[in-house]
Amino acid sequence: MEVSEISGPIPDLTFYSSPEQQSRQVSLTVKRWLDQGIPLNDIVILSRFRLENSGLSRGLDAEILPLPLKNLEIGEPHTENTVIYSTIHSFKGLESEFVILTDLDRSIFRPELINQFYVGATRANAVLELSISQEVRPQIMEFARKLEAQTRERRTTDINRIGISARRRTRSGAAQVLARDRRERKTRRSRSPVNESDPLLDVVNESEIRIAESREAAEKYLAETPPADDAWFGTWGQTVYEVRFVQEAIGPVPQITPSNTMATDVRAQTRLVGYAGSPTQLKLHIGLDDPGSYVFVKENGECETQYCPRFMISDVETADNVFLVDDNGHRVTLVRRSQAG
Question: Is residue 177 pLDDT above 90, yes or no?
Fold first, then answer.
C-alpha cells in the first residue's frame, strides 16, 4: 500500500471482528458525538453495501443507543430520532460534518473500488471515523507505520533546515467546536439542580466507583513499579495506562549540536496494566493541540512495538498536557512516574 499526501480530516480508526462488535463500536461513536452536542442530522453512516447486506443490517446496539437507522437510499421518511445510513454511491455529491465509513474489509485493496472508498472518505467535513475489519488490521497498521515515518522524516528535515526541534501544532476548527460544546454542556450540568430522582445521580455514583477503582489501581501500580524518568502513567477504573518514552538516535544534526552528537527521537512504548481483551487502539496526545498518534495494543495489554509512535524529545519535555484517549472516548491524563512518589 503506497502512502500519498491527501487533504481532509485525519480519520479515527476502530477495528471489528464481528458484525455485533461493529454495531457496538458505531453505536458508541454516535452516542459520544451526541453527548458532545453534535446534532443527529450532522451525522451519517456510510457503506459500500446496502443496509440489508451491511454489518449493521440489524441496526445499532439498542443497549447503547436505542435509535433506528434511517435508510437514505430507499427514501425512508425523515424523523428526528433516527441515524442516517446510506450507501457511498447514493451519498455521492453530498456531505456531512461527521461521517462513519463502515464495512471496510479486504475489498479496500481492490483497485476497482479505491475510487469508491475515496468518495466515501471525502464526504466528511469535520470528523471521519473508519470502521475496519480485523482481517486487514496488519496492513492498516503497516500503512500507519509508513505514514508515521514519512511525517517524522519531514519533521527532521524541518529541524535541519531551520535549526529548531520543537514544532507547534494548531488545533483544528472541528476540535475547537467539540471543546466548546463540552465546556457548554459541563456548564449547563453544573447549573442544574440534582435531586434523588435525577438520572444524573446514576452517573455520579458510577463516577465515584470508577474513581475508587482508579485510586486502588494507582496505589498498587506505584507500590510495584519503581520510579523512572521516562515513564508516565494514568488510570481509568481498574486499568493502569503506562507510556515510557524511550530514546532512540535518529541521525546527526550539525546545525543544532556538535557534529559527534545525534538528534533524538523517543518511542512511546505503551502498556495497559490489568488489561485482557481484544486488540485495541489508543490515541496518544503530546499537548492539547496535538491531533494525536495511534498506539496499537495486543490482547495482553502490551504495545505492538513496531507500531509504537515516535516523537521529538523536545516535544515531550515541553508538553503542557500528555493524555491517552481509548476507543470508547475515555480521556486518561498521564503524569510522570518519577513525580508520583
Answer: no
pLDDT value of residue 170: 36
How many folded domains does the chain comprise?
Answer: 2
Q: Are 246 and 322 within one domain?
A: yes
Give the span between the Cα atoms of 337 and 241, in whole angstroms: 11
Q: Which contacts of 149-153 are long-range, i.e. CB under 8 A and separated by 24 or more positions?
A: 150/3, 152/250, 152/265, 152/310
| Residue 154 resides in a domain | no
In a domain, 7, yes or no: no
Tell me: do 172 and 121 sit in the same domain.
no
pTM exceeds 0.70:
no
CA 38 to chain centre: 18
In the 8-state DSSP scheme, what is residue 301?
S
Q: How far apart are alpha carbons 267 and 260 in whole angstroms?
A: 22
Of the candidates 254, 221, 253, 251, the residue with the CA atom closest to the CA atom of residue 235: 221
> In whole angstroms, what separates CA 91 from the centre of its chain?
25
Helix (H) or strand (E) holding 99: strand 96-104
104: left (phi over 0), alpha (psi -120 to 50) or beta: beta
Residue 257: predicted pLDDT: 39
Q: Are residues 177 and 314 in the same domain?
A: yes
